Amino acid sequence: PLREVVIEFFISAAWVETQIALQQFYEEVWVIGVIPALNRLQIFNTETLSEEAAYVLLGVEESISSVALKKKFRALTLEYHPDKQPPEKREEANKKFMELKAAYEVIMKMRSYRTKIESAKLLKEVADRLNKFGKKKEKKKEQKKESEEL
After folding, report:
1. Residue 5, class by beta-carbon neighbours within 10 Å (0-12 exposed, 13-18 middle, 19+ buried)?
2. With contact defined as beta carbons under 8 Å apart, do 58 and 104 qualify?
3. What's the burial of 113, exposed, middle or buried (CB within 10 Å: 0-12/13-18/19+)?
4. Which candidate, 52, 60, 100, places its Cα nearest to that of 78?
5. Phi, psi of 50 (to 5 degrees)
6. Helix axes 13-32, 34-41, angle to 10 degrees
7. Is 54 exposed, middle or buried (0-12, 13-18, 19+ CB in 10 A)?
8. CB within 8 A of 54, min separation 6: which ones?
9. Nearest Cα to Cα of residue 45 among 88, 131, 103, 85
10. What is the rounded CA–CA span in Å between residue 77 and residue 59?
């Protein structure tokens, strides 16, 4: 059943549309470059904050788990939340709060982007293997048909 579902997907209209979209994106990358193309897709915005700066801003290592990152982010936003500050510190706290929020969003978008890239690579590998399998099966059918004709 799983094999049939996967094969059905690769002959579906959704897969064809995905291939067309990926081809258009690939061509756009060649014309305007990788970073501008990704910025146009709004996957992440490299113009505001780098991922490395985001980790520094949150005071965490790049190897931190998503759960621990979220916990650290929530603790920092509670600490710097403007509503929890005295009136004279609210403006400064609001600025820090917004920086923390932006840093967390950059990290999460980049992690999501990497996951999508890894998934796309895995899907391509599966598709290549299925194509090879299909070609082998067709070749065997042709050989069998030729041997029957003889």
Report:
1. exposed
2. yes
3. middle
4. 100
5. -80, 160
6. 130
7. buried
8. 102, 103, 104, 106, 107
9. 103
10. 13
Determine the pLDDT at residue 66.
Answer: 92
**Phi and psi dihedrals of 11, rounded to 5?**
-110, 5
In tens digits, the chain (150 residues) has pLDDT values of 788 888 888 888 888 888 888 888 888 877 877 667 766 766 544 456 778 888 888 999 999 999 999 999 999 999 999 899 999 998 888 888 888 888 898 899 888 888 888 888 888 888 888 888 777 777 777 878 777 776
Of 11, 33, 2, 5, which Cα lies nearest the Cα of 131? Answer: 11
DSSP character for 46?
Answer: T
Residue 88 structure tokens? 């004279």
Q: How many CB atoms lie within 10 A of CB 101?
A: 14
Encoded tokens for 19: 């291939």
pLDDT at site 35: 63
Q: For 119-149, b where at least 16 C-beta lie within 10 A, e where not — what string?
A: eeeeeeeeeeeeeeeeeeeeeeeeeeeeeee
